Q: What sequence folds into this?
């Protein structure tokens, strides 16, 4: 048993890689050779994880991936526990339908991070995803529970049809953020345009948000400026075309 | 045994098992956290008449609270976990939920036994309340006129100790009070204990039951009441004309012992004839704090002052 499993990308990916086998709680019971033999799809062709990564360590729920994985999709899909750190970018479907554990991406992530698989009614149902960079479209789509934090900008449709949970965007939130959400919270520290089916409620200091931001500082060492922790937020209730129990909290510059 | 000329009687304080929760209250300022804590711990001196015992453990700097605001730590005790939940629901609902800017957190997060206080208080939100899981813990957001009240869904409960005590036997009321004040000052900074009585001091120590009234479960401690020396079997040495009691509740025996040790040493000043303790012959509680044994140990290191 090792402190961590380290997967190092051998070279730049030339084809799309489906790497949904990289799930910490599944790797926790595997030896290094078994991990290297896990199946992946590269450009539509079957291959083994070891064809693309060198594997160090074994039998650990802490996984660190080195390299630019912008073309590797499905990492952390369905994970239920453990820790996954990606020291670079991640592709689409990061942590899709995850139920627990934490994912930290030092770079950016593709579309549908923490979202739902095609045809599924729910996205992630637990756990936390921290993406220091930006994300593609529909981050956190249909998420049911959990926390997603985006250090940069969020692509179009962030939090689309959220059922519950929290999505924090430090940068700009793309168009359509929060559309069709039932419950849940979208926090916009940068610009956001609430959908027309949201209604302004008040400007205040949500105590749970302060707690969340202080938690992010302590848990992940995330640099959260005091102005966000102590600041006031516009609260928009919505989506009133759905349950209307969700909210967009937009930081207000003093 | 004597400390600074004050006799330490060969007796013990008899304490009993309780259930304790630690409540962390934060506010926009220390003042508002304190206001809520003072109301929460008001009329909570003894389970005999108040159904609970509570006190402020210490004030918390911003860096020690979950939401980074100034706060206050309260220890809250009852005789069993069920009543602890009931009393907390009543009191938090009336004193912390109502207090501007405050939020309420669990100070014993690792305790396996829980009381679902926030879960009960959430219904004040009349269906508009919402929950949020932050750092693996569930909180309830209760909408109120000011904004929102945030409260932990449940609070940890563990076994605690109630009724740690010692008695200051002094030559007069002034010297008894001065010694008691010194004891309180020495005990207040120590972790894991609270002094639930006014200013930490009790003038009306009691005995179990009554010699005359069947319905009374506690009546005056006549053996330690100087004015009754001539008409009852007195436990007071000659020259003692006033007695004050220090009562301590705490998280565990080591916390009580450390505080008693500090308090007794501080109370051994001029004008105090003896230090004694209240017990019931070992029939009331399983925790016996023998004074002379306690004082054989080293004095406790005080907690560093809050930043």
A:
């Amino acid at each position: 048993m090792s402190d961590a499993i380290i997967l190092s990308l051998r070279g730049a990916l030339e084809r799309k890689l489906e790497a949904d086998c990289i799930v910490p709680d599944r790797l926790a019971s595997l030896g290094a050779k078994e991990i290297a033999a896990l199946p992946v799809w590269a450009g539509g062709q079957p291959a083994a994880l070891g064809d693309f990564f060198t594997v160090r360590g074994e039998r650990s729920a802490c996984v660190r991936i080195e390299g630019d994985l912008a073309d590797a999709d499905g990492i952390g899909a369905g994970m239920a526990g453990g820790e996954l750190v990606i020291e670079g970018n991640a592709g689409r479907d990061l942590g899709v339908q995850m139920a627990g554990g934490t994912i930290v991406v030092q770079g950016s992530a593709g579309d549908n991070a923490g979202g739902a698989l095609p045809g599924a009614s729910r996205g992630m149902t637990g756990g936390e995803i921290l993406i220091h960079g930006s994300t593609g479209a529909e981050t956190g789509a249909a998420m049911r529970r959990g926390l997603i934090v985006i250090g940069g900008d969020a692509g179009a449709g962030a939090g689309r049809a959220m059922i519950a949970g929290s999505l924090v965007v430090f940068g700009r939130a793309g168009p359509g953020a929060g559309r069709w959400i039932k419950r849940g919270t979208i926090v916009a520290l940068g610009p956001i345009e609430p959908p027309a089916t949201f209604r302004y409620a008040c400007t205040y200091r949500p105590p749970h948000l302060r707690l969340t931001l202080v938690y992010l500082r302590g848990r992940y060492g995330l640099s959260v400026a005091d102005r966000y922790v102590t600041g006031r937020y516009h609260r928009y209730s919505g989506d009133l075309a759905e349950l209307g129990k969700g909210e967009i909290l937009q930081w207000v510059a003093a | 045994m004597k400390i600074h000329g004050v006799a330490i009687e060969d007796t013990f304080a008899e304490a009993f098992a309780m259930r304790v929760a630690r409540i962390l209250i934060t506010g926009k300022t220390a003042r508002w956290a304190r206001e809520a804590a003072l109301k929460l711990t008001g009329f909570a001196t003894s389970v005999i008449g108040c159904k609970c015992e509570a006190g402020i453990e210490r004030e918390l700097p911003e860096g020690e609270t979950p939401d980074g605001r100034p706060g206050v730590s309260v220890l809250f005790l009852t005789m069993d976990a069920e009543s602890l939940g009931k009393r907390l629901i009543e009191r938090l609902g009336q004193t912390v939920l109502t207090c501007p800017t405050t939020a309420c957190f669990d100070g014993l997060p690792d305790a396996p036994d829980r009381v679902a206080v926030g879960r009960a208080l959430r219904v004040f939100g009349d269906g508009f309340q919402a929950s949020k899981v932050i750092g693996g813990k569930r909180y309830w957001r209760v909408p109120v006129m000011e904004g929102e009240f945030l409260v932990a869904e449940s609070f940890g409960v563990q076994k605690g100790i109630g009724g740690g005590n010692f008695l200051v036997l002094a030559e007069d009321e002034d010297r008894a009070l001065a010694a008691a004040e010194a004891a309180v000052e020495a005990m207040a900074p120590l972790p894991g204990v609270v002094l639930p009585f006014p200013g930490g001091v009790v003038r009306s120590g009691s005995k179990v039951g009554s010699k005359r009234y069947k319905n009374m479960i506690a009546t005056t401690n006549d053996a330690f009441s100087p004015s009754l020396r001539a008409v009852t079997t007195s436990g007071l040495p000659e020259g003692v004309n006033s007695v004050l009691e220090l009562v301590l509740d705490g998280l565990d025996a080591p916390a009580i012992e450390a505080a008693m040790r500090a308090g007794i040493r501080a109370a051994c000043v001029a004008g105090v004839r003896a230090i004694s303790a209240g017990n019931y012959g070992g029939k009331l509680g399983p925790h016996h704090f023998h004074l002379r044994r306690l004082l054989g140990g080293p004095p406790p290191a005080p907690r560093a002052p809050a930043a």
